[in-house]
């Protein structure tokens, strides 16, 4: 499974048009992004109600979004509910932690 690649033009529309959205912020030079991409692909079938996408942090026209998200380095995940950033996390997660993190988007603590 692959995720669409967002640009600065498509980012806001993607987030706004999906009730649950996860954006993987990545960079070509980061060796951990392949592992994160693989872990996300493994989880996608378990979360059909979540829209997944990727966002390359390196293009200069993407830096404003990175600043808004406070991306200090990839891999970085941004989780959105109804167009609003709910939480984010930097760094590689194992599959169990990733699954719990994604489940938290769908089932927030009361």
TrEMBL record:
Residue span, Thioredoxin domain: 1-107
Its protein name is: Thioredoxin 1
- Membrane-crossing residue ranges in chain numbering: none
Task: Give the matching Gene3D superfamilies.
Answer: Glutaredoxin (3.40.30.10)
PROSITE patterns, per database record? THIOREDOXIN_2
Organism, per UniProt? Rhodopirellula sallentina SM41
Source taxon at top rank:
Bacteria
A family per Pfam: Thioredoxin
